[in-house]
Every structure is written in C-alpha cells, then in structure tokens.
Design a protein that fits this description.
9-stranded mixed sheet; Spore Coat Polysaccharide Biosynthesis Protein SpsA, Chain A; about 350 residues; alpha/beta
Length: about 350
C-alpha cells in the first residue's frame, strides 16, 4: 500500500544520487493543502510508467512524479522484466507506489493498460521511464479539470532535451484535419504533457496492444474521431528526453510500418479515399527505403550508404525524378547522417 501522498516530503525519499542537484533530486514542488479552497477533495490523478531496462533514467522519472506535492496521486510502475538495475531502483521507492510489478509483457501498450486496469483516479496519464514531469505539473492539470466545463483531454507544452543540455520547447498543436495524424512521427505535441479523463480512457477502450510505437498517435486520433477537442494550455508540464537509444529512434522503421497499420485501420474514418490511402502508403514505403539508407550510413559508413543508394535507384529508377532522393545523394557526400536525420525529424 502506497503512503498517503499528503505526508510525502522530499526528506522522506532516498538520498539523491551523488552529484545530482535541482529538480527532482534536491528540490520538490510546494506541498498543496489537503483539500481545495472550497473544501472539496482534489481530483485523484493516476499515473502509469511503463519501463524496460531504463535503470539509467527511471529514478529521476520516479522522483518527478512523487515530488509533485499533490495530495491525491496514485503511481503505478509496470516493468517488463528488466535485466539491469531497474528493479533495485523501483524497490527503493516501492512504499510510495500504489503498485509495481516486473514481469515479461507484450510491449509498452500492454504495460500501460495493465497499470490503468488498477487505477482509480479521475485523471489519467502515462509517463515513460526516461521522461520527467515539471514541478507543480499535477496541480496545474487538476485546476483545468475541475472547471465547470470539464475537458476530457488537456495538453500542455513540453521541453525536449538531450544529453548535452540542448533544449527546445514544443508548443502543442491539434491538427485542423485529423488525417494529418496519419504520417510517420506526426504527433504535434509532447506525449508526456497529455492528461485525460478516466472516462475518456474507458470510452476509447484503452490503448491498442497491437501497437508499440504509434500507440499514442492511435489513442489521440481515436479521441479526435469521437469528437474530443483537447484544451491546449500554455504551461510547460513535462520534459521529453531525446537520446540515441530512444525506442522511437532505435527502431524507427517500425514506427513507419505501424503508421501504415494506422492508415489501414483509421484512414477511411479520417476521410481518406482508397486511392488516397494507397498513395499515402506508397509514399511511406518510399520513406522506409530512404530511412534504411540513412540508417546504413549511420551504422556502417558512407561507402555502404552509397552502395545501397545506387542499388535502390537501380530497383526503382523513377526515384531519380524526385528531388528528395537526388538531395540524399548530395547529402551522403557532404553531410553527416546525424545532421540529416535531425533536419528531417528522424533522429
């Protein structure tokens, strides 16, 4: 049984790692009063962290949740049977968790659904084990959910950062046309800064467990198709960690393939004709070939990339008419693969 969050303070938690300072190591959010100003209880927030072999990051994630200073919060960690030190870290904090488990699962979406199957909150969110919440995030979110016209989905700003400290702030955008979601890497806001009502989660029948890379795209797109209009707020709610081993980067081709699955599943509901779906899928298949060359360049070097580039043009001569592929040839000769992937939002 987790501790009553009303009484959790930073000095209750394990000592911060050596050399770690600031949020969420040596600083916490201000503790909120036990109830709201009108005497009513705070809406309960349920947060799930799916994790697998993220020992290098998960402690920072855990602390950013527990140190929200929010009186009614339940936190679930669903680990997929990690072989690193993740379990040891989770055990350090288990008395403040509503539930945790470490066992093999069927992927991220399955882990998230396992967590929410135990949740009892009014507000839901999931936070990956390499991302962070900002101080006071839960307080900000609850203030929007308790309004007279309660939203079902709230999305805030998100900080994207990397290991050398470079930061950028993502301003959330909800596309005017939902079919804009049906492109690879097309999520127009930071997923960690999204919170939704438990009613919406049940209405959408959870996350699609056939997806492990486009699960959030699918979830939010289905919400839009049900007429949900999110409330976009100007507050920074979270930090998204950009690094080379991030799942959506290290297995980028699977992201593209799952986008094709989404087009097959939801394209018609988004207003795409069969011809438009076929054309879009064809474009993504070409993108996959393009990305394969970039990944070969990154992992095996320029010579291998040039060989694969020439082989692709021999198989599909029509690509010589596309400026993008001609440009790729020039880039292979004069740029670095990381730079090209960054410019095209692939890295």
């Amino acid at each position: 049984m987790a501790i009553d969050m009303k009484y959790l303070r930073i000095n209750n938690l394990p000592e911060p790692l050596s050399g770690k300072t600031g949020w969420p190591w040596t600083e916490g959010s201000p503790q909120l009063p036990d109830s709201m100003s009108d005497g009513l209880p705070w809406p309960k927030i349920s947060i799930v962290t799916p994790s697998f072999n993220q020992g290098q990051f998960i402690e920072e994630t855990i602390r950013s949740v527990l140190l929200q200073g929010y009186p009614d919060l339940e936190y679930f960690i669903i680990d997929g049977g990690s072989k690193d030190d993740s379990v040891d870290i989770i055990k350090k904090y288990e008395q403040w968790l509503a539930y945790w488990v470490s066992e093999p699962d069927r992927g991220q979406s399955h882990a998230i659904n396992k967590g929410f199957a135990r949740a009892s909150g009014e507000i839901y969110a999931y936070l990956n084990s390499d991302d962070l919440y900002e101080p006071g995030c839960c307080h900000i979110v609850s203030q929007h959910f308790i309004k007279v016209c309660k939203p079902n989905l709230i999305i805030g700003k998100c900080i994207f950062f990397n290991k050398i400290g470079t930061k950028s702030i993502s301003n959330p955008v909800w596309p005017d046309e939902l079919e804009e979601f049906l492109y690879p890497l097309s999520l127009t806001f930071g997923q960690p800064s999204a919170f939704w009502s438990s009613n919406l989660y049940r209405f959408l029948v959870s996350f699609d467990e056939t997806l492990n890379f486009c699960l959030d795209l699918d979830f939010f797109l289905r919400a839009g198709l049900k007429g949900i209009q999110p409330e976009m707020i100007p507050n920074i709610l979270s930090r998204f960690r950009n690094y080379g081993d991030h799942k959506s980067r290290s297995q980028i081709l699977l992201c593209y393939k799952e986008t094709i699955m989404l087009i097959d599943k939801l394209g018609t509901m988004c207003g795409l004709s069969e011809n438009e779906k076929t054309k879009r899928i064809g474009g993504i298949l070409e993108d996959i070939e393009y990305v394969k060359i970039l990944l070969t360049w990154k992992t095996k070097g320029r010579i291998h990339a040039i060989f694969n580039y020439a082989a692709l043009l021999l198989r599909s001569p029509k690509l010589i008419l596309q400026r993008r592929f001609l440009g790729l040839g020039r880039r292979i000769l004069y740029f670095s693969p990381d730079r090209v992937m960054e410019m095209e939002r692939i890295l």
